[in-house]
């Protein structure tokens, strides 16, 4: 009789745990088992995840954070408590597994590149759920938001963010969809690494330029950010140039090179720097839809004369972060550095 009772106790306990468990599929195709109804101790390991978490309103559940995000102006404005969180390292220099384990997370969100997959496997063997996201297109940013919110046990949180993104993308599409292919501007994106480093066709920046009604001259490149030669840049002869928000002043110097003056974009001074001073809009996060709208406005101003861009950006930030851009000390700040202006 005692054995029968014991069996039922064990069986019911196992059934209760099974009911509490959830399974989601991450962007690497991994089946991730989450033992609790909600994740309450979350660690993001790179900035795109942190920005998604802020947009989803989950910042109070963070117990650690990627070290870069501790210094991020937007993160500090939305969530001042970030300065008190433990930094766990960065995607570029490495994540400190020991530090991460000491924080006892119940959800870790990782990147697909570098050691992200191996870290996820190691955490899984230790009983810590880890999901991988790859936000390298608008659709994948929306998928990332959905996966993060479901992993956290708050699937309802993603809808308002995704709706705001769709509203902006639909606005852009409604204005540029009728531009004939022969009239579309050929655009070049200079990454944060250098002027002669650009985005391949499978990257977010390519998707942004395409959605903004332009043709990315580097679309045929494969991989991630790729170095190109000045000769290739000349051969592409873009009509318009967009600079990454994080390209430093040294990276702007090729603009002043006399040998490049015959490039159409430089001859017509069609050179623009992505906003904003709080967080880059040419970066994988929900804010990239604002970057898409901004780029379309710069390329085709005649199609967007009715748009008060600062007001639109204020409204968008308020939906995502409950504070508007200006309220947080933000501004477009999209002018080229004075020392390289014509």
TrEMBL record:
PROSITE patterns attached to this UniProt entry: FE_B12_PBP
GO biological process annotation, one example: cellular response to iron ion
Domain of life the protein comes from: Bacteria
Pfam families documented for this protein: Peripla_BP_2
Domain Fe/B12 periplasmic-binding: 41-304
Signal sequence range: none
Protein name: Iron complex transport system substrate-binding protein
Originating organism: Desulfocicer vacuolatum DSM 3385
């Amino acid at each position: 009789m005692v054995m029968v009772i014991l069996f039922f106790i064990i069986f019911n306990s196992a059934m209760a745990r099974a009911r509490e468990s959830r399974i989601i599929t991450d962007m690497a195709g991994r089946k991730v088992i989450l033992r609790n109804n909600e994740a309450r101790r979350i660690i993001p390991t790179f900035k795109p995840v942190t920005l998604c978490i802020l947009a989803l309103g989950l910042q109070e559940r963070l117990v650690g954070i990627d070290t870069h995000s501790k210094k991020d102006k937007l993160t500090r404005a939305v969530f001042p408590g970030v300065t008190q969180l433990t930094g766990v390292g960065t995607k570029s220099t490495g994540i400190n597994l020991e530090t991460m384990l000491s924080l006892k997370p119940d959800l870790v969100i990782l990147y697909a590149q570098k050691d992200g997959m191996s870290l996820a496997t190691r955490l899984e063997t230790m009983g810590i759920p880890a999901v991988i996201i790859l936000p390298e297109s608008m659709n994948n940013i929306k998928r990332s938001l959905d996966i993060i919110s479901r992993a956290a046990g708050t699937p309802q949180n993603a809808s308002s963010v995704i709706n705001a993104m769709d509203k902006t993308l639909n606005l852009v599409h409604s204005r540029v969809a009728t531009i004939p292919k022969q009239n579309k501007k050929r655009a070049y994106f200079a990454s944060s690494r250098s002027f002669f480093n650009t985005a391949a066709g499978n990257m977010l920046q390519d998707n942004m330029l395409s959605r903004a009604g332009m043709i990315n001259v580097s679309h045929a490149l494969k991989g991630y950010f790729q170095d190109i030669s000045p000769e290739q840049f000349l051969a592409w002869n873009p009509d318009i140039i967009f600079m990454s928000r994080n390209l430093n002043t040294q990276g702007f110097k090729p603009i002043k090179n006399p040998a490049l003056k015959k490039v159409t974009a430089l001859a017509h001074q069609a050179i623009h720097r992505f906003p904003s001073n709080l967080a880059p809009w040419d970066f994988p996060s929900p804010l990239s839809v604002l970057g898409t709208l901004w780029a379309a406005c710069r390329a085709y101003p005649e199609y967007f004369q009715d748009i008060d861009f600062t007001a639109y950006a204020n409204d968008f930030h308020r939906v995502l972060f409950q504070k508007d851009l200006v309220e947080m000390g933000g501004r477009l700040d999209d002018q080229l550095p004075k020392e390289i202006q014509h």
